[in-house]
Amino acid sequence: MTRSITLLGAPVQTGAWRRGCLMGPDALRTAGLGRMLRELGHEVRDLRNLAPEEMQVPPAPNPAIRDLDLCAGWVAALQSETVALDAETFPIFMGGDHLMAAGTVPAMARRAEAAGRPLFVLWLDAHSDIHDLESTESGNLHGTPVAYFTGRADFTPHFPAPVATVDPARICMIGLRSVDPHEKLALNEAGIDVTDMRAIDEHGIATPLRAFLERVEAAGGHLHVSFDIDFLDPGIAPAVGTTVPGGATFREAHLVMEWLHDSGLVTSLDIAELNPFMDERGRTATLMVDLVASLFGKAVLDRPTRARS
């Protein structure tokens, strides 16, 4: 099935302590993301890289937080620019640290609302990113987008209010393996569906993914996939500043993307935390292009894809 795809660079690096994520979008371009999608028969438009809005916000209550004006500017720019995208296009947001999801996810929720459908989020990550401005000890705001776009915490007047929020019951997190006590409590209170790496070791990655996709299909929902590079094991994907051993294997990651393609449910994608400064001869960017190829139909053997109504 031919798709109309829009590439949008989100070179956010102020949400993380280690610099380099601003090079992520161009690394994906250099690795051939757009070319690969065109070779698969899709129509691709590259809107290049966004820039943050100029903002001055009140000081954060937490002295550990850095670059708050820039972080707020990125959230504002990503929401406003993403809401303006053509409703028929499939956006791929190329990051940039995971603060980007504080802009992309609310905008995708707004688009789903306009279509009369609920937004579901598949969060592929080693971390839950559900801290708020007061609970973060590191001050790294790439650890806060889930609290923001679920409305769990009020980030105003430091961030713009989200243009739409996501019901935590419509979020599935797969691959978690670094969650602190505050985040464990927040996940339990929010009722987010969580599959950590132990559960994957015991039952496989297909079981929770199948159950979640069935829920999305039954609700007629849009599905946004937020893919953090540290979902993957650092042995195959070293280009991330927050490596956590024991992540998804090459085949587990491809299986996820192949299943997502076969479901026909995915409507938008984040690629977050790609830090080329940490990479080895571009191997992580190349792997991500290969994984996105699986999401968009590259396969050894053809399999039926479900048509959306």
Tell me what the structure shows.
- With 309 residues, the protein is of the alpha/beta class.
- It has a single domain, classed as 3-Layer(aba) Sandwich (Arginase, Chain A), CATH 3.40.800.10.
- Helices cover 35% and strands 16% of the residues.
- It contains 10 helices and 8 strands.
- The protein has helices at residues 24-30, 33-39, 68-83, 101-114, 145-149, 181-190, 197-203, 206-219, 250-263, 283-295; strands at residues 4-10, 43-49, 90-95, 119-124, 171-176, 193-196, 222-228, 266-272.
- Strands 2-1-3-8-7-4-5-6 form an 8-stranded parallel sheet, sandwiched between helices.
- β4 (119-124), α5 (145-149) and β5 (171-176) form a beta-alpha-beta unit.
- The protein is globular, with a radius of gyration of 18 Å.
Q: Could you spell the SSE succession in H and E letters?
A: EHHEHEHEHEHEHHEHEH
Return the domain count: 1
Q: What's the rounded overall pLDDT mean?
A: 94
Poorly predicted residue ranges: none
Structural class comes to alpha/beta
Count every helix, treating DSSP H or I runs of 4 or more residues as helices: 10
Tell me the name of the CATH homologous superfamily. Answer: Ureohydrolase domain
Tell me the radius of gyration: 18 Å
CATH architecture: 3-Layer(aba) Sandwich
- Just give the CATH class: Alpha Beta
Terminus-to-terminus distance: 14 Å
Strand residue content: 15-25%
Instruction: Give the neighbour order of strands across the main sheet.
Output: 2-1-3-8-7-4-5-6
Helix content range of the residues, please? 25-40%
Number of strands: 8
Per the principal axes of the C-alpha atoms, what is the gross shape? globular
CATH topology: Arginase, Chain A
Report on the biggest sheet.
8 strands, parallel
